[in-house]
Predict the structure.
Amino acid sequence: MPDIAFVNGTFCPASEAVISIDDRGFQFADSVYEVVVAFDGKPFGMDAHLTRLRQSLKLTDMSLDDLPYDLNAVIADGLAQCAYPEAMVYLQITRGVQPRSHVVSGPVPLTLVATFRPKPVIEADKRRSGLSVVTVEDPRWAHCEIKTTALLPNVLAKNRARNDGFDDAIFVTTSGEIREATSANVFFVRNHTLVTPAATRSILHGVTRRYILQCARSINIPVEERSVNIDDLASAEEAFLSSTTLDVMPVTSVNSKPIADGNPGPVTLKLYDTFVDLLNRERTPAK
Ligand code: PDD
């Protein structure tokens, strides 16, 4: 089965899916999205993803009630059709199709685009070596908690980082406060405590981030959610990124300087194992 898409109310091979050039998602990035993984047809953390989607829609004056499709039914149907054991479901909701004008006239049915592809595989070597990151000034707006597709700053930062030989960039304010990576949350370990920027409006409230904090508490690792300064990162014992596609991904250098001895640290590896156990429990329902 090829990768499939749901668009304009029907399923088709992803390579054949098209939307109108007048879609507000295309014209204005007037849209929000979610990325969810599913194991054997069962989405992981769906309630948390749906809660965040509802919140993103609310904060952008949209609502799932205005979607002319049953979102859960589309997801279940798409997963059954693609039958990938590890699928990545991308959901995008836009403010619909109208001739281009900033002003929306009348009620417009929202557009739903969903794609069903295999979950990207992360090379074992990359997990072992960890990521190199570079810090860049955060040029984004005041509502990074909204999961909008307006990702130009993230796209530019990631590509510039790649062109400069780094794996990713971490957004930092002019006063040195660390926010997040271009498509992942950031964690680090200092004095055997797991530290991550607080869930303010300046970062996306990652679903994986929440699970990682839960995993840490379950194995008695102290946790601090607080404002984090760039000096904290430079003197960290360990660092890692978290996201739906990366899970827990070690970061082993910042701005070309190794973190500690430049290898993934024990707390990071332990949290990765604990998170993978959680995913496996979802995969194999208890008898
Ligand atoms: N990105 N911060 C940003 C800016 C993100 O784009 C993401 C996820 C995260 C982590 O969120 P979560 O744990 O819920 O995946 C944090 C997705 C994976 C993407 O854009 O593809």
Remarks:
- The pocket of N-(5'-phosphopyridoxyl)-D-alanine is lined by residues 35, 154, 180, 183-185, 204, 206-209, 242-245 (CB under 6 Å).
- Residues 124-282 form a domain with the D-amino Acid Aminotransferase; Chain A, domain 2 fold (CATH 3.20.10.10).
- DSSP finds eight helices and 15 strands in the chain.
- The first helix runs from residue 24 to 28.
